[in-house]
Amino acid sequence: MGTPLAAAGPAGVPAPRLSPAFAALVLALLLGLQPVTTDLMLPALPALAADLRAGMASVQLTMSALILAFGLAQLVWGPVADRMGRRPVLLLGLALYVAASVGAANAQQVMAVVVWRALQGAAMSAAVVCARAMVRDLYEPQEGAMVMARALTGLGGLAIASPALGGLLVSALGWRAAVAAMGVVGAALAVFIALRLPETARHRRPEATQLRPLLRQMGAILRHPGFRAWAALVACSYGGLFIFLASSGFVLIGVLGLAPGRAGLVMSSCSVAYISGTLLCRRWIPRLGLVGAVQRAAWFTLAACVAMALLAITDARSVIAVMVPTWLYAIGHGVHMPCGQAGAVGPFPQAAGLTSALAGFVTALLAFAIGLWLGRMLDGTVRPFALAMGSAAGLTVLVAWTLVRRHGAKLGHA
Question: Which domain, by its residues, includes 402?
């Protein structure tokens, strides 16, 4: 593992170096805010629908609005983080996140929950954008992917705990307790960042938020074939995960009849498979590089695609039939995400915030469209879930074996 670069403070004084272990911890906590925000809610969705007398489409909108705001806000936070640095954006975003969590926990109508969840998503995006940009602040792409994989192993632990904790909170105290727990996590993370994290941005770009330079930089990023390849991989792979996030509560509880607590534990098993994928990623990258690791992981994703197709055909209603292909998908996802996120920001170290934001926006836009589709298509069977996840798996494999194979090694400037 390489030594991280020294970060420059606001006055140009180098900030303390971050060890790879501490950097991975910070990244895991920041990126972990996303599974906390989504996974804690998974067992709560059916209870929310019953309590607020809301229809399926409205309840799905609490997830879709969150992910759309998450994507759109990245286009704001990214340039601001390139201009002002990572710390100010992180602290402001986390303060807004806590406020939105309190608002959602006290909402009395489903559309009020949707609005507060949208603000949660916008605030959460500050943490994710800055985390991805910090990887490029401190490391070259291949080293960054190793640290990212290490961080995502830790994130997997948070993802294991979140649905299980959500299920327990919903069973004991109702869906509002799960949302309130998000605010507690956000407040604790804000304190940690304020006390322990130095500024990592080594360059300030005053022009980052000026319209013409911003548009020129966006054009350069979007034209870069390496960025397009890696961003497409991240979008397709996360799209499949979002299908699981948005529909697993209804499939496991509504179709298979599991209690919320047990359903939360089953959902957590997906994160165990995901952690396995990140461990494989950390083993494969030094031997195979980013592109080679993704090529190998795509075999797991292909197996998930085939298994999901069989599930859609048979409409088999058992936990094993639903979760085995999901586990296969999660293993592949555990490789695709750290490689894809590090590869996407690799070509543009001077504009890592904006590059991270553009990649995140594309991902969130796809997830938003998926959420709207699922709200209309979930029909009391496992078929819509299986068809959607199978399609996402097929697209991920296609991107991995075409665009990434051809352009993934292009990590220099176009």
Answer: 20-198+209-407
